[in-house]
Every structure is written in structure tokens, then in C-alpha cells.
Amino acid sequence: MINKTISLSSFSSLHNDDYVISSKYVFKSLKSIVNNDTSNTISDRFVKKYYSKGKPFLWVSYDGVSSKADSLVEFLEIIDSIGFSRSAFRIKQINADIERLRSLNFDSTEKSISRTIARLEYNLTRALLIYCKGQRYGFTNPNYTLNHFDVKDSDSVRVNFKKLFDVKSLHPTDSFYNSILESVNSDNFISTLHSFSPQSSLYRRLLKELQTANSPAYRKQIILNMEKCRWMSMDKASKYGKLIIVNIPSYMLYAYDIDNDSILTMKIGCGSIKTKTPILESNIYRMDINPIWIIPQSIVERDIARHAGNLNYFQTHRYYICKRPSFERVNIASVSYSMLKSGNYAVVQEGGEGNSLGRIIFRFANNFSVYLHDTSSRLVFGHSDRRVSHGCIRVQYPYLLAKFLLGNDNSSLLRRIEYSMTTDIRPKLIDSVLVEPDIDKRMLIKSVDLIQKVPIKITYFTLYPDKTGNLTAYGDVYGYDKAILRELSWYF
Q: Which of 14, 237, 239, 491 has the maximum number of C-beta atoms within 10 A of its C-beta?
């Protein structure tokens, strides 16, 4: 028998320590990578925890580098199209390590192949999770960035911040990351990756715009607004196809009737720099006609308390005073400056003509007591800078908004709303006698509950389509873009 004397020792001369894979040194190298990697995103922390526990490798085995690694690297070319740097995902290092392993091109450094395997495995998993998490939940965390933006109060021990972002967005969990890792060995791995790309029409519009944008500043503005799309479900309308978007930087409200392919637009006034309108999502459920205004305590302390006991001031402004929490009316003359400052009393403005909330208010659940409402100061809509309120949103055409919410099938109800909004319901002082106005009380209506709640999204897009559909740039009126850019800059 030919070569019957050949044994493994006959090949000993071919042995090369540079190509010996030692699981001991691979895991030792992994541990070193985990300990020395200073990146500290949520995804990074999961990757470090995964490999610290000695979990199975996903990309490299004794058979070599998996073809799924090539699929991932090829897919991650999309990073360029969404405006991010390949270096943030370590793609150059990943490509170099794949080539090194397949060509066995190692240096003479001790255990070079083991370090290469460990580095490639770690970087591939890291790039995968950062991409999937970022596209699904955002590459930045608005709950941290925007809710650490304005200081509410502080002392020598702690700083309290105002809450400015209150969208109930989900957050990645271990099960989210584990499901991604499980998909690596599935037949639909690439389709899973595609599924994480935001699907809103605005995101797709911005993505298309980015491909032809040349100005570095404009490209960054596009990327910033693409990031905001990842935080919010922009296309989610009600069951009967209606959606309201209030966009703070454009000072505009957009009421979309998706079923009828129409849009109602109007100017808005929003919160001032000191009392910013929050970013939130909710549903409009009711409108109140001729609402009273329970004046915020901050306004009472700043503007009203010094007029304590001045009956003429309170009557002129149609204010009355109530005890908290019973809201039992008290004699204005009996309430002192210190009593108003204490917060135990509420100052309320009667409803009707001249009320600061106007003639109608649109209510939706939120944690800030902000709403859409009419206004008695309509000159604001002629200004270019409409940061004027204490957080609520003043709307230019409140009756048209009511009509949009109810639909054209409610003509009799709309007539009652219009009558209630335009009729003076206040008693008039004639010859020192209060005389009730001559009105048809059967036509008056105080409140209307919506049968179908309508989603409202208060947003902050500095690139947004105008009423004709043209993508338009707006100013960074609250300075949020600068803060978000600092968080995103690591990806550029």
C-alpha cells in the first residue's frame, strides 16, 4: 500500500504557529476588546455583555468566515445613503479582517489570528446591533437629550430639568437584541435588516433629498430630521383617516384628511423660549366652547397677585377667585397678596368674548396641560415669530378646525358651535344693572365629545413639506437641532 507509513508527524514541517487558532487566546482577546472599547451606547453595552458571558460566535467558526458576514457588510453600504460615516461602524476594519482571515495574511505577532477572529466577531455584531437599534428607535435618545435641555430649578445637590419630550416611544430590550442575533442564521436575514428602515412618507422624502444634497450644512439638516422621523410614527392616522400635525419650527398646523386626500393648514402660536411647547403625541377627544381659563400659578404670581383686593382690576379682566381644591368662589376683597402667592387659591377667567383661550379649546390628554385653542389676541398671526404662549398652541382658524374634526355630516351641530362662538354670552352692565344678553339658549353648546378621536402630533421638524408639498427649511426656534447634532456627530 502506497504511503502506508505516513502519519501526522510527517506534516510537522508545514506547521505554522501564525495560523494556529486557540480558543483560549480568542476569548482572551475578546475580553481585552470588551474592556478597552470606550464606546458606551445601549447597543455597545449589550455586545459587551453578550461576549463577556461567552455566548456563541455568530460570524466566525473553524470553517472560516460565514457568508452572512459578507451579506452584512454589503448591506451596511446603506450607511452612506443615510448620511453616516462608515468609520462609526468600523467597516474598514471589518473588511480588512475578513480579507486577512481568508488570505491567511497574518503578521508574526504572537496569536495574531486569534486576535483577528475576536475583533472581527465583535465588530460585526456591534455594527449589526447599532444599525438595527438606530433605525428602529433612533441613533440618539430624545428622552435624555431634550429632557436635559432646560433647567427647571437647581440647588447645590441636584439639577431638575423641564420635560420637553413626551412621546411614548419604545426602547430596545435584551429580547429585541436577541431576536436580531437569532436572525443572523436564518434564511431571511437580509429582509430582517431591511425591515428596520423607517417607513414614514416623510422619512422616505428626506432620504431621497439627501441623495442629491451637496451643501454640508443642508445635508446635516436633512440627517437631523431623518433622525426625528425615527422617534415618531408620522403616518399613523385615525380609523377614519384624519391626522393633525403641529410643527413648531414652521409655526403651522396641518390637518390631514387622508381618505379625501385633502389638507387644512393654518398658522399657530406656540410656547415662548422660557415656556416651550412640548413634543408629544396624543388624541383630540373633546372641544369646549366658551371655556373658562384657570390661570397658571406662575402667571398669578408674576402678574396678578400684586392686584390683590383691586375689585376693578378683577372685574375688568373678568377674573374670579376660588379656593383649591374645592373651587368654591370667594370674595375677591377677602383675598390678599400672600394668599394668592400661596397656591391655595385659583384665579379663573370667565368664558366668552375676551377670554384668553378664545371661544373654543380642543382637548387631548397630556402631562403638561397644553391644548389647541382660539385666542383673543389674533394679531399674533401676523407676526413671523410666534413664540408667544405659556406652552399651549393658539390656532388661526378654530372653527375650521372644529369642522375638520367633526366632518361635513354634522351641519346642525356645527351651526350650534358657530353660534356659540360668535354670540356674546356675557351679561351687560346697563344703568348699573347687569342685563342678560338676548340669545337663543337652545342654540348654545358647551362641549362636544368626538365619536372618533383624532391623533395629534406636536413635532419639531426644521425640514417639512409646506401646504403645496414643497420641502421647506425652517429655523431652529428652540435650539433643539444643535443639541441633537452634538449627539449625532459621532456618526458623521
A: 491
